[in-house]
Input
Amino acid sequence: MIDINFIPHPLQGMPYGLALDLTVILAIVCWILSVVTREYSWVDRIWPICPGVYCLLVALDTDFGSPRINIMTILVLAWGARLTFNFARKGGFLPGNEDYRWKVMRERLGPVSFQLLNFAFIAPGQLLIVWLFSSPIHQAWSGQDQPLNLLDALAVTLFAVFFIFEAVADEQMWRFQQDKKRRIGAGEPVEQPFITNGLFRYCRHPAYTCEMGMWYVFYLFAVAATGQWVNWTGLGFIALTLIFFGSTRLAESISLSRYPAYRDYQASTPRLIPFSRIGCIG
Output
């Protein structure tokens, strides 16, 4: 296994340590690109790619001899392929097509504060979170002699369920936005400027709910491999939850500033947890 030895860390010499070295290099590259191009979606463009690469590094170290690691890698590669497709069709890889939320953040924070955010979080912070929520595969590597069990089966099943529902939510959002653009382009009235039907009847951000769910159950593979219900790789889905709470809060503040009726949607529909009142505002 190649060891870049970019920084000293406890995982040096291990395949997931190589993934950490790669994360540091990518963070530096993304930060430099953001400064040079004045675009801040470089991490967004590699977000769906990195976990699959990290898992492949671990699988390669085992010569694809661990059934659990192979299953985890296949699931993550499928997740990444679907997310990459959805990001690409929205134009995310085209020059200048950065996430609209970064523009809003620049306006709200000012140039100096935003560059501090960029230096500390947008590139390094986000990529560290990606590395963390993918890290249960390191635990699977540590316990690769442990045979597959019922917890693995549960993890595969739940991951697939969340995967399917996220794909449905993204497709519903895509069709809604395309129809909205068509109506605007044709000069037709847009009676409903934001989506509230389909899966969006049950929570305001169903894709995020499913995204978090997939990485929650991904952690179950680490438990299945080691028998430890609590270990450091759980920091990944915790960090992902926090980033999604912050992201949805920002997105909703923007929607509310554009569409006053969005407040009624906030009052009637939970933010992330379906069939509950958690996150309802009003």
